[in-house]
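Have a close read of this protein, sequence plus structure tokens, and explain what the tokens say about the fold. Thanks in advance:
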Amino acid sequence: MNVVSLTQKLIQFNTINPPGNEEEIAKYIGEILTSHGFLVDYPKYAKERLNVIATKGLLEGVKPIVLTGHLDVVPLGAAKWKTNPLSAKIIEGKLYGRGSTDMKAGIAAMVVAAIECFKNQDPKGGVKLIFTADEEMGCNGAKHLFDSGYNIGEASAIIVGEPTSNIPYIGHKGGLYVTAKTTGITAHSSMPELGDNAVYKAARAVTKLEGLKFDVEKDDLLGYPTINVGKINGGLNLNSVPDKTEFTIDIRSTTKLDNKLALQMLKETLGKDVNIETLVSLNAISTSETHPFIELVSEVCAFDYTKKQVVKAASFLTDASVLTPWLGHAPTIILGPGEPSMAHQTDEYCYVDKIKESVKIYKEIIIKNSSINI
């Protein structure tokens, strides 16, 4: 199967989220896998939105390797593209299109590698593919799958095909996104003493956050947690005391600060004048570089984790926040052919050579993992 042609076909399915519409692409991928002996299930996420779970070669008592990615892509943006973003054209070795990097090239490579690794002999424990809907809005497809009680089974290891330019990352920070709200009493601005200014309350709260230092140990891989106020909105007009203000907070957590503790510290810092609504809560994931699976991946990718200044962790969130703990904290890498800097960009592209290379990498990891799988 030609992985580049498959990538082009997947890009041509419009899965821009919102609304997503992953049903057609899910069934297309499922039909390919079914024709090659995989057992395929389509857990429903929402109307016209499906996840895909495909397995082959499973053995009782032996955990399979899991390859996972998401089927949705982000909107096109306001800027004009130089090519049709759904036409998947190749120009000078680059495959252009929305989702080329994030992450339909990774999905295609995983499908082809999973099929081809069974050509000579079955990998011990088999292979499980998990392709999710609605990842871009906060890993909602994976979370819905978990909340529904779906029997996901087990994993010996997990590969997340997000864009890394085929560099194997061994973790990423978590994300806690919240909306904070303050309320007051409106009044004419010439008589502010009759009102209660919600903007002042928000301003005091934001100032507290600027100085908030999470008193936790540094994570060897992920560093320290961070916090950012990204948006603020309050008031209706110039000459009224505002009675409502909202602002957003983005906390990037580590394995030393889970989101439950981060939320508690946030509430204690802001106090009773601020109401907090959680939008997204995804914890950090991390695997030791000395784990046998990570050493295997390091060998396959010719990547040395011991070198100084080398990047070992992804800057973005992935479905691993949901899947890794659900699958028994199996060793996890983030590894895909896409270019991290091109994710969500106008004129998004993926190098054709990287797509082909990723198939070889995935196949070798699957086969070598099966030799150490117990």
